Amino acid sequence: MKAIGYREPGAIDRGDALQDIELPRPVPGPHDLLVEVAAVSVNPLDTKVRRRAGAGGDGWKVLGWDAVGRVVETGAAVTAFKPGDEVWYAGSITRQGSNAEFHLVDERIVGRKPASLSMAEAAALPLTAITAWEMLFDRLDVRRPVPGAANAILIIGGAGGVGSIAIQLLRALTDVTVIATASRPETQDWVRQLGAHHVIDHRQRLAPQVEALGIGAPAWVFSITQSGAHAAEAAEAIAPQGRYGLIDDPVGFDILLFKPKAVSVHWESMFARAVFQTPDMGEQGKLLTQVADMVDAGRLRTTVTEVMRPINAANLKAAHAKIESGTARGKIVLEGF
């Protein structure tokens, strides 16, 4: 089967950073679906893994986690899906990725694809939807008020993939006031279109901008990018006893900034359930099917902003480079082999 892989970690401008390769078609384990991949999206995670982790030995490492496609085979213990079903998922970081014609994924972290979206439109959502949902409703618990705080959330990095779906989930499922950061006119317009009540500039000090809104100190902060750089501003802006969440990997992050206000700090890793085979692993599949229902009901929209065809090394390199430039808006999707 066709796939895109690499052997050694490194920069995207290397000639061997990503290569078109041929690999054997994989065989499903008991809980696995073998999916014929129709479309994938590229996440910042893909670029981080490519820079840090190699294949080991003389093998190939295949990236990619977001995927949409059709089930072609099922393992002996599979009960929820059958060949021909259209599915979407974000996979597991401990397995080979979805940048391949055929891909194995555990059925428990798979949901049905939204019927109202094309393959490319759907591919933009799984990883970011899981990340945003788990952070908002499992970690930050935004349905539980913080005493004395404004019923508001500050989303740092609102225009990227996670921010784009987080804003929509908040507007669809809560009455929380959404303050999103974006620094360029096109990204500011984007987050407003998605439903942000207020937009502020993360290139300027955040706390004074939040205070100037006149709504009070927000109960929650969701830091999606550059958390280390924005930690002091977030700690100043958030309400006492608020809840702060982050998903990136900041160097030198000062958690003590949040102690004076007794702010709880929450990390989200959407792969935790799959990697550790937690008893509630199947919640991710349920979550994705619920998101699909919301999409089909018109309550959520795709966050894809660019589609590249086909799925090959050249296009993946271009997508990685754009994400690493920090200028991406929404999600970049690749479709078809």
Automatic annotation (TrEMBL):
Signal peptide bounds: none
Keywords: Metal-binding, NADP, Oxidoreductase, Zinc
Record-annotated Enoyl reductase (ER) domain positions: 10-334
GO molecular function annotation: oxidoreductase activity; zinc ion binding
Xref: NCBIfam families: adh_fam_1 (TIGR02817)
UniProt xrefs under PANTHER family: QUINONE OXIDOREDUCTASE
Protein name: Zinc-type alcohol dehydrogenase-like protein
